[in-house]
Structures are given as C-alpha cells and as structure tokens.
Recover the amino acids of this structure.
C-alpha cells in the first residue's frame, strides 16, 4: 500500500500540472500562437474517449470475457473511416452557424426549437450521469486500492460525510470550473482545456503502456511466455477464443460496435473536442487515423494485463478492474503503481472535465436560459438592461458553474444508488445507449431535408422513454433501490412489458434488446411523424441550411428573415451576453466587411440580424438567441412560399455572380488576344514602313543618276557621240538595275504572300551546280578569281523548282564574285550528301562578314560591307534565296567558323517519304 | 478529396472493416493455433485492426489538398 497523503499529494500535484498546461495553452492562444492548431493535438484530444472505463474497466472486461472489451474500440475506428464525410459536415455546420453543443445542433436544425433543445439536454444530463458515476467509481476504487493493504477489502465509510468519493466529486467540480468557466467572456472554445486534454492523453497512454510492459516483461518472460502459461490453464485458455465455449453472441458484438460507433460522435465530450474545439477541418484527415491508432495502442496490453493478473493472483484472487494498480503494488513497485494511478486519474479527470463542461453549457443555454427568459422577473431585468446596459456574462458563468457542481453531485448520487451493483463497463454502456438516441435526429437532420421538429421530438421522446424503461430503471432495480417485481413479472403483472424482455422478445441480452427497441421506435417515430405533416417554413429554411451546408457559406447563403430592426437595439443586446467591448468589436469588424465606416451607419437589414443572432447563438444557444433577437426586432413571419422565394433569389444571385465571373474571365481572355494581335499588327506595320523607305531609297539612287545624265544630254546638244554613247550605256545599266530591283521586290512579295509559282521537277543538283558555275564563270574570270567545284560522284534526284534553285546559286556565286579580292580570288563550291539531305556550301576568300552583321545580312536591304566601298546590289538577294530554300524545307546560314572569307551554306532535305535507303557518301576532298 | 476517389475508397474501406469484424468472417480466426508464438485469435484481431488503420492513413493522406 501507499500512504494516503502521498496519493492525495501526487494527485493534486498532477492536477496542478494540468492546470499549468491549460493556462499555458490559454496564454499561447491570446498571443496568437495556438498550441492546439495542429492535427496531432486534435487527434490526442479526441482520445478523451478513453476514460476510466478504458483504463480500469477494459482489463476487468477482458478478465471476465476475453476479447469482448474490443467492440468499444472497433466502433470508433469504423466511425473515423467515415469521419471525413460525416464529422466534417458537422464541423462545417457548427462553424457556420456557431453551434456549440449537440442540443443546439438538433434544436437549430429543426427550426431553433427551445423545446427540442431542452429535451436533448435532459436526455444528455440523465444519460450521462452513469458515465460520470463510472469515473467516480474508477477513481475511488483506485484510491482505495492504493491506500489499503493488499488483500484486504477497502474500508467503507458508513457516513456519507466520510465518503472519499464525495470529496473526489467536489474536487473534480472545482477543477472543471477552473478549466472551463474561468473567463468572463463565454466563448465556446477552450484552447487551454484542449491542450490539457491532449497532455492527459499522452500521460494515460504512457502509464498504461508502462504497466503493460512491466507485466509482460517484468512479471513474465515476454508475450509468448505469458500466453503459453495462460493457455495451460483451461479457464484462461477459453478467454482467448471467440465464444468462450458458448455460441458467440454476434448480435451483441454488432450492437456494441454500433453503439460505440455512434457514441464516439454523439457523446457530449466527443462532440465538444471533435466539432466545437476543432480549429481547422483539414486536421480531421490526420486525426481520422491517428485516433484509431491511439485506441489500438492503449488496448495492446489489455489482454496481457488481464491474463497476467489472473495468473498472478489466481481466479478471484483480486478485483480484475484494479489489476493495473494491484500488479505493480503486489510486486513492490510503488512508483510504477503511483504512475499507473496518475494515468487512471488522468483518464477519469479528462473525461469528467470535458463532459461536464459540454453538458453544463447545454444546461445553461438550452434548459435554464429558455426557462428564465419566460419568467417575468428576468424579463424585467432584461428591460432594465436595455435601458442601462446590464452585463449578463457573469450571470451566465454563474449558471454554468452551478450546473457543473450539480451534474457531478448527481453523478455521485447515481454512483451511490447503482454504482456498486455494476461493473464499470456496464455502467458506461448505459450512457452509450442514451447518447445513441441522438443519431436519428442528428444524421437525419444532416442528410434528409424532410425531418421535422415534431418528428425529432417524437423520435427522441420514444427512444429516451424506452431507454429509461429498459436500461435505466433495471439498473436501479438491480441495485435494490426499486422493487424488482416489475423486472421479473412486468408492471402490474403484464408479462409482455417486462423491461428486459419487452414485447416478449427473448434471446437478446438486455443492452442489445434495449438498443434495438429504443432505436427502432426512435427512427420509426422520427420518420413517421416527420412524414405526417409538411415541414413549416422555419424548419424548411433550417433544413436547407444544414443539408446543403457545403454549397453555401454564412456570408453568401440565403437569410430567412424579414422585418424591421434597429442597430441601437441589436448592439446592446449582443453586449449584454458577450460584454460591451467584445460586442462593439464584433460590430466594427462586421461594418468593415460590409464596407461601412461607422457602426451607426450599418443598414439594419436581414444580414445584420442574422449576424447578431449567430453571434448570440455561440454564447447562449441558437434557440435562446432566436428568442432574444425576436424580443428586440419587429419581424414578419415567413411562409413556405417566402422561404422558397428567398432561396430562389439566393441561388439566382449565386448563378448571376457565377455567370458574371465567367463573363469577366472570357472578356479578359479576349482582351489579351486582341492586345497581342494589335502588337503583331503594329510590328508588321513598322516592317512595311521600313520596307517602303528602303525600296524608295534603292530606287532613288539609279533614278538620280539616270536623270542627271539625261539632263546633261538634253542641255548639251553638241555632245560628242562617244560621250553620249557612254552616258546612254550608263542609263541602260541603271535602268536594268531598276527593273531588277522591281522584279526582286515583286518576287519577294510573291514568295512572302505565298502567291509565287513553283514548277517542281526531279532535278540533279550536280547538273544544276555545274550549270550555275558555267554561267557565272565569265564574271569570275573578269575578277581574276579561280573557281573550285567539288561534287560527289552521284546524288539522288531531288524534287524542287530548278529555276528557283538556280536563282539561289547565281545569287550566292555573284555575291562571292563581288567580294573576292582582285588578286588571287578563290571561290569554292561544295556539294555534300547525307541521310538528312543535300548541303551546298559556297566559300570565298574575301573579307568575310563582320561578326556584328552576320545576323543582319539575311534581312531585306541589308548589304554586307561598309556603305562606301560595297559593290552594287539590291540587298534582296540573300533574303529571297533564304525564302526559296525555306520553301523547300531547308535552311540557309552563314558558316560562323569559316577559316577565311565568307561561307554561305544551305541544305535541302529529302522529302519525308522519299528518303533514300542507302545514302551515297559524297566524298569531298 | 470531395470529389473523386477519396470518399468512395473510404466508404469501401468502411464496408470491408464492418464485414471483417462481424459474423461470419470473425469466426475464421477462432482456431486453436499459434501465430508467431501468440494465440491466433487475439493476434489476428489486432493485426487486422492495424491493417485497416494503415489503409485509412494511406487513403486520407494520399488525397490531395481540398480545393
């Protein structure tokens, strides 16, 4: 055993540490560096699912029934597989309409009905009491085990004042108040609490794994040894099979799986951490698999610890629910036992804190507030508030704190009434079955627009009634607090109404049959009554907002409200529940978003009323918020037609804005196209201008000399004949030059515009080159240059226009002739043949083309050489040649690395299909 | 992941997991045998469980960012 003061001291030290973590989380949140804004913390906070039930109860369950502890953890895994679809939708709905609890969710969906909110809250409070009792039982059992000598039954106090469990309940209430309702602003998010819960989840997992490792490798020689020894004992061997010798109760297995699948979503604490405290819905992706992994890890050693305990103490030697503590204690490992105790405390306190905070919010918003709003005295206070600005935030916190204390004391009461008769797991399952009743109204409300308020009320009422009758009352009767007659003979002797064999249904265990009947009547009444009458306008509008939440957002969605309001009424209303400062800040932000400079200038329209109501809903629940807003505005009731019209308008508006976006996008595209077309046109225009000025310039030079000579001849009639002849010769030459220029310009224009005529035939380039060389030979000889023609023996025929190619060759050769030096000029013409095509190179030993002009010489009217001593030419030869070569798919270029002089080359490719199989190698030397 | 394969894969995995952990597939493992020195039935349950979590992790993490 461990001394009681030490256990109490360690417990309080641990709770203080938790508190430190929570205030650290809160501090970080106010600094804007949230610690819970990551998927890992989110997943760990979900592990608040693992309470004292997991920590102590699972081992007890495993020791009694083998693998039957597992369905409670397989269900959550199944739920998390669908979480990305289902839970994300819940998060989106809750975020959009500032929903803070399950009661709020259901009430809001079915037309913001206060009655429905109240019923859901009532079910939650009653349903959750056994669960709270379970935690109290877990902690008090663990405390008793730690502080009493081993093997002795724990001492029981006769008087309730001496009962440690009561003080545990009160201490937990105190801590919950400190954790959840510290702040005056009644914001629905609790960052510090979530940080503390995530921390707790780590502690309880580590502690449980430590005990598991100690049992497996400390007390036994590994898993193999443990299982081998267990299998040697017939009773234990049975635990490792499916049915323990009996027929396996598949329906119960399925019921437990279904139950835990629903509970992991609809338990108030799970809804709180999963939906309300969610920071970013994308975190759900990682949490969806990390949380089941956590469950797997924490269950890994459940069976080994149970078997180890049974082997160590012998069957019935010690309470199996306490194996986690008694095994380390029995072997003298006090520190490990203390660690295990802290882990169990962690599991229980984490659950209690979150659960009670969530439930107290519901009690305050959905049970107490609506009742208070109805009483005249409170209404009068409100009236004063309107005049003088009474702040109700303190009052709200007071309600919540009282609710926390009340819930824990009620849990303690249930623990006293029924706690002793049941195992931990059985108590927990009663609560699971209660929250499972929310499933039809919640899921139906999220996916079916036809569900109505009456349907939800009827379904929840039936389900809850049957739950009380078939599970809650029997649990009290079995503890001896109710006469057991109605259990054995049925009420008033009516056998058919026996709670555990309702309507004579036999063959199911009490939990399965209770779940079956309650869910059957729940779903039946929900669907049946919903279909009885058409939903009202408000129900329809809320159904549309919930079911189609992914299609709209709060700012663009339709607002189902019509009436008259004043900013001067709405702002103080919000201020009374959120505090004046926060309310003013919210209004300023809203005004900014609407593009209005001052709050007073805000248009008190439907949007603003909706905004105030949503903000208010976050603090006091949607049903109460509805009542409050309705009390300060004058509103007209909407008919179903109005709802449909508003919806139509909203969707039309959305369609218009979509169309507008589309149109503006296509306009942008068209503008860009036009701009680029304009740029192209401009550059073409510039080119044309350049071309015109070049052409006129080239025309003017010969014209000037013709005119000058002609004038000289006109003026001087007595000119000698020889001189006249000479001048006329020049005139003729210049005229030829003019017509050549004009021809070339025309030629160029034809080729460029694609109107040139091409007379293609099969030509032998060898013959063509030879002919070209012969034609230009006289000109070369005149310049004293030598021509060297290098041809391969044979080349394949090429399909091209012979005249055009001749034009190219003559142009290149005459260029070469113009540039070769007077003495020792040399022009080389080479023809090469390869697989790609034919390459012709014309190489002279002239001055070559300066580097800076190489790129320009193929442009129109750009001539090589400097302007003073360059030979005559039109400046169109090379561009035309290049155009011709390119017409046949080839290219023309100036060899950049020619040793001396200029080397112009062009290639003519083989036609794609007619490529020769064997290329004759043009061997040139 | 709203549109496309993600949700379909998740629904399929849900059905598979539901089938694996219920009648009659569950009974397949209920044999008096050893798996790596451990009793087959609990070992198979935990192994299946781990495999489903692995598949779930692969599916949700592989899905691209939400549009």
């Amino acid at each position: 055993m461990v001394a009681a003061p030490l256990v109490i001291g360690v417990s309080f030290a641990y709770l203080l540490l938790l508190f430190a973590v929570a205030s650290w989380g809160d501090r970080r949140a106010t600094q804007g560096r949230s610690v819970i804004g990551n998927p890992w913390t989110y997943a760990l906070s979900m592990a608040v699912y693992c309470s004292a039930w997991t920590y102590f109860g699972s081992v007890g369950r495993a020791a009694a029934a083998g693998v039957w502890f597992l369905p409670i953890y397989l269900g959550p895994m199944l739920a998390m597989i669908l979480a990305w679809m289902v839970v994300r939708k819940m998060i989106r709905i809750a975020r959009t309409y500032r929903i803070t609890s399950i009661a709020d969710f259901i009430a809001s969906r079915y037309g913001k009905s206060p009655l429905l909110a109240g019923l859901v809250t009532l079910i939650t409070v009653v349903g959750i009491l056994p669960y709270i009792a379970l935690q109290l039982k877990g902690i008090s059992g663990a405390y008793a085990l730690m502080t009493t000598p081993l093997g002795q039954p724990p001492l029981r106090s006769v008087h309730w004042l001496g009962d440690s469990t009561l003080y545990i309940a009160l201490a937990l209430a105190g801590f919950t108040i400190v954790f959840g309702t510290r702040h005056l602003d009644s914001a629905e998010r609790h960052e510090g609490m979530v940080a503390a819960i995530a921390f707790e989840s780590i502690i309880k997992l580590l502690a449980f794994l430590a005990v598991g490792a100690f049992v497996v490798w400390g007390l036994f020689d590994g898993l193999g040894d443990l299982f081998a020894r267990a299998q040697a004992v017939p009773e234990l061997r049975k635990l490792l099979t499916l049915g323990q010798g009996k027929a396996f109760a598949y329906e119960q297995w399925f019921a437990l799986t279904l139950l835990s699948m629903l509970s992991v979503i609809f338990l108030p604490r799970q809804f709180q951490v999963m939906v309300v405290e969610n920071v970013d819905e994308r975190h759900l992706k990682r949490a969806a698999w990390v949380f089941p992994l956590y469950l797997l890890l924490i269950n890994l050693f459940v069976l080994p610890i149970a078997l180890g305990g049974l082997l160590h103490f012998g069957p019935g030697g010690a309470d199996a629910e306490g194996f986690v503590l008694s095994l380390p204690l029995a072997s003298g490992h006090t520190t490990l036992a203390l660690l295990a105790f802290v882990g169990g405390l962690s599991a229980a306190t984490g659950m209690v804190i979150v659960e009670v905070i969530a439930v107290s919010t519901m009690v305050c918003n959905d049970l107490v507030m609506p009742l208070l709003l109805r009483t005249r005295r409170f209404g009068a206070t409100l009236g004063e508030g309107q005049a003088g600005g009474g702040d109700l935030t303190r009052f709200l916190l007071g309600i919540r704190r009282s609710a926390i204390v009340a819930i824990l004391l009620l849990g303690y009461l249930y623990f006293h009434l029924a706690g002793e008769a049941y195992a931990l797991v059985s108590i927990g399952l009663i609560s699971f079955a209660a929250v499972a009743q929310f499933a039809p109204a919640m899921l139906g409300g999220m996916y079916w627009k036809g569900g109505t308020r009456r349907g939800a009320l009827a379904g929840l009422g039936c389900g809850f009634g049957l739950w009380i009758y078939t599970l809650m009352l029997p649990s009290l009767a079995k503890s001896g607090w109710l006469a057991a007659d109605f259990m054995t003979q049925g009420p008033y002797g009516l056998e058919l109404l026996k709670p555990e064999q309702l309507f004579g249904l036999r063959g199911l265990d009490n939990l399965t049959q209770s779940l079956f009947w309650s869910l059957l009547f729940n779903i039946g009444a929900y669907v049946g009554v919903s279909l009885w009458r058409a939903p009202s306008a408000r129900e329809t509008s809320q159904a549309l907002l919930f079911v189609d939440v992914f299609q709209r957002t709060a700012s663009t969605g339709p607002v189902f409200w019509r009436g008259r309001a004043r900013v001067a009424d709405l702002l103080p209303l919000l201020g009374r529940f959120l505090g004046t400062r926060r309310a003013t800040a919210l209004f300023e932000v809203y005004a900014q978003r609407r593009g209005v400079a001052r709050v007073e200038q805000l248009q008190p329209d439907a949007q603003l009323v909706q905004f105030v109501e949503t903000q208010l809903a976050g603090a006091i629940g949607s049903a109460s918020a509805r009542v409050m807003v309705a009390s300060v505005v004058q509103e007209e009731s909407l008919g179903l037609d109005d709802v449909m019209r508003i919806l139509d308008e909203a969707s039309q508006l959305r369609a218009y804005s979509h169309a507008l976006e589309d149109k503006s996008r296509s306009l942008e595209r068209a503008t860009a196209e036009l701009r680029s077309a304009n740029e192209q046109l401009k550059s073409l225009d510039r080119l044309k201008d350049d071309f015109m000025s070049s052409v006129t310039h080239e025309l003017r030079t010969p014209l000037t000399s013709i005119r000058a000579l002609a004038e000289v001849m006109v003026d001087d009639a007595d000119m000698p004949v020889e001189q006249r002849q000479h001048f006329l010769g020049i005139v003729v030459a210049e005229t030829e030059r003019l017509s050549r220029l004009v021809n070339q310009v025309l030629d160029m224009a034809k080729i460029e515009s694609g109107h040139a005529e091409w007379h293609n035939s099969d030509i032998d380039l060898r013959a063509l080159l030879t002919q070209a060389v012969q034609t230009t030979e006289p000109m070369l000889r005149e310049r004293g240059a030598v021509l060297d023609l290098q041809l391969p023996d044979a080349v394949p025929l090429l399909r091209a226009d012979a005249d055009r190619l001749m034009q190219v060759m003559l142009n290149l050769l005459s260029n070469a002739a113009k540039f070769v030096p007077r003495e020792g000029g040399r022009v080389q013409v080479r023809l090469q043949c390869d697989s790609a095509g034919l390459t012709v190179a014309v190489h002279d030993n002239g001055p070559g083309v300066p580097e800076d002009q190489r790129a320009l010489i193929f442009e129109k009217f750009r001539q090589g050489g400097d302007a003073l001593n360059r030979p005559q030419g039109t400046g169109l030869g090379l561009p035309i040649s290049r155009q011709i070569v390119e017409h046949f798919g080839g290219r023309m270029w100036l060899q950049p690395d020619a040793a001396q002089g200029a080397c112009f080359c062009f290639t003519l490719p083989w036609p794609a299909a007619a490529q020769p199989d064997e290329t004759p190698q043009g061997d040139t030397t | 992941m709203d549109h496309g394969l993600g949700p379909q894969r998740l629904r399929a995995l849900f059905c598979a997991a539901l089938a694996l952990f219920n009648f009659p597939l569950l009974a397949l493992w209920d044999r008096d045998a050893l798996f790596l020195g451990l009793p087959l039935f609990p070992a198979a349950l935990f192994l299946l469980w781990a495999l489903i979590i692995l598949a779930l992790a692969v599916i949700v993490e592989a899905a691209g960012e939400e549009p």
